[in-house]
Amino acid sequence: MTDTRGTPNAGLFGATLGFFVGFAAVSLFGPTAGKFKEVMSLSPVLVGLLVAAPALSGSLLRIPFSAWVDTTGGRKPFLVLLILSIVGMGGLWAVVFFLYPDHLSQSLYPLLLLLGVLSGCGIATFSVGISQVSYWFPQSKQGWALGTYAGVGNLAPGLFSFLLPLALAAWGLAGSYSAWLLFLIAGTWLYAVTGRNAWYFQLLKRGRTPSEAREVAQERGQELFPAGSMTATLAISARTWKTWALVVIYFTTFGGFIALTAWFPTYWKSFFAVSSVMAGGLTALYSILTSAIRVPGGSVADRIGGENTAVLSLLTMLVGAALMTLSHQFAVCVTGVVLLGIGMGVANAAVFKMVPQEVPEAVGGAAGWVGGLGAFGGFAIPPLMGLFVRNLGTIGYARGFVIFILLAICSLILAGVLKRAHASTEVRAGVVAAGQAAQGSSDV
Questions:
Q1: Low-confidence stretches of the chain (pLDDT beneath 50)
Q2: Which pTM value belongs to this model?
């Protein structure tokens, strides 16, 4: 076919690259919030809001931008979000380069919040990429493809958490922001070169009618197709209760992941008094583990089903959260972090195995609701954990993890409900198929 370009693997590569790059700004902003706290005399709650600011835009913008994929294919939403992230990152660079530390005061706090919100636009590329990749791959490979996309892309915050203390020591705050800004600009350009829409959307852009584009794309192996306009795909997915069950689970696992990636540097330094380099390394351990395990987690979901995978992983997360809440011993808490990372990462893969399975007619809309409102946990959770510290003192850093115990229990209940509903659907489908077979035999 001469009027289309790319392959599913090439589409996966471009989307993964774009998402990895999009995490650059937020990965720098969260861990350096402590620098702003020192010179601006910010309270724990204000620091929590500052750390969570990128997650606000990074979560809520996922809803419309992911639905936009159902009409354009993904490249335009991706590029718009990356450019907005560059604007925010550029503003933060200017603040650090020209105002830090002597000219920063609490009066500039709203400006930092705004720039943090713009920087967080890069996180919103996640749901755009989920939809873009989903249209490239058949249902039988969704778990692996989406697990690879999210797993590799989510390695960014962990790698940056490890590199940032080294960069700060070598280049200082201004030099680090300069390096991260250049990386974001270069990465955006690379996505513009490598990012590809699925065949259906390429054919539409080249003048084919929707029916022609669908027929030709099906011949190439594309299985999923959009329902129509942005509002239509959002409405269709919003009317499905399964979408909202998946939102809650993803709020727990991915929203919690974003929250803890930003929160852990402060937690380790304040609760266990470790060095900045050690805190960065421990944060990287959690973040890289949670991200990397999504790849095999997606393959597991392909084999045993998304619902079964979600139940097992949420139980693992629950145990990890309990250890973090109750223990004050360093080794036990490291074990708790590992269990949290494994549970959250595999559950994240399971959720997006279920999205195209449960809402195949509106993948972009469903991915937007799940990815957007689910990731809102990254904004909502850090301030709540800050309240535990304010009210309980240092021990509040441990007790705050009770939030994850409650969230894990709620998500387990919903995963069980989804499992029963899916089993009932399969039984009904089997009965219908058996009836059709019997009817066909009697006709003969």
A1: 1, 431-434, 441, 444
A2: 0.77
**Looking at the domain assignment, is residue 354 inside a domain?**
yes
Q: Tell which residue, 124, 167, 171, 131, has the closest CA to residue 149.
A: 131
| Number of other CB atoms surrounding residue 227 within 10 Å | 18
Position 35 scores a pLDDT of 81
- 3 state SS for the chain: CCCCCCCHHHHHHHHHHHHHHHCHHHHHHCCCHHHHHHHHCCCHHHHHHHHHHHHHHHHHCHHHHHHHHHHHCCHHHHHHHHHHHHHHHHHHHHHHHHCCCCCCCHHHHHHHHHHHHHHHHHHHHHHHHHHHHHHHCCHHHHHHHHHHHHHHHCHHHHHHHHHHHHHHHHHHHHHHHHHHHHHHHHHHHHHHHHCCCCHHHHHHHCCCCHHHHHHHHHHHCCCCCCCCCHHHHHHHHHCCHHHHHHHHHHHHHHHHHHHHHHHHHHHHHHHCCCCHHHHHHHHHHHHHHHHHCHHHHHHHHHHHCHHHHHHHHHHHHHHHHHHHHHCCCHHHHHHHHHHHHHHHHHHHHHHHHHHHHHCHHHHHHHHHHHHHHHHCHHHHHHHHHHHHHHHHHHHHHHHCCHHHHHHHHHHHHHHHHHHHHHHHHHHHHHHHHHHHHHHHHHHC
pLDDT one-digit tens code per residue, 383-410: 899 899 989 998 999 999 999 999 999 9
CB-CB contact of 61 with 372 (8 Å): yes
Q: Identify the pLDDT of residue 225.
A: 86
Residues with Cβ < 8 Å from 431, sequence gap 6 or more?
none
Query: Which CATH number belongs to the domain containing residue 320 in this structure?
Result: 1.20.1250.20
Amino acid 1: pLDDT: 46
In whole angstroms, what is the distance from residue 324 CA to residue 329 CA?
A: 9
User: Is 388 contained in some domain?
Assistant: yes
Tell me if 52 is assigned to some domain.
yes
Indicate the number of domains in the chain. 1
C-alpha angle 313/26/346, rounded to 5°?
A: 10
Question: What tokens does 13 get?
Answer: 């590569």
Q: Is residue 1 part of a domain?
A: no
Domain extent at residue 379: 8-195+224-422
pLDDT digits (tens, 9 = 90+) for 254-293: 889 988 987 898 899 999 999 888 988 898 889 889 988 9
Q: pLDDT by residue (tens digit) across 205-223?
A: 888 998 999 999 998 888 8
Largest CA-CA distance found in the chain, in angstroms, rounded? 88
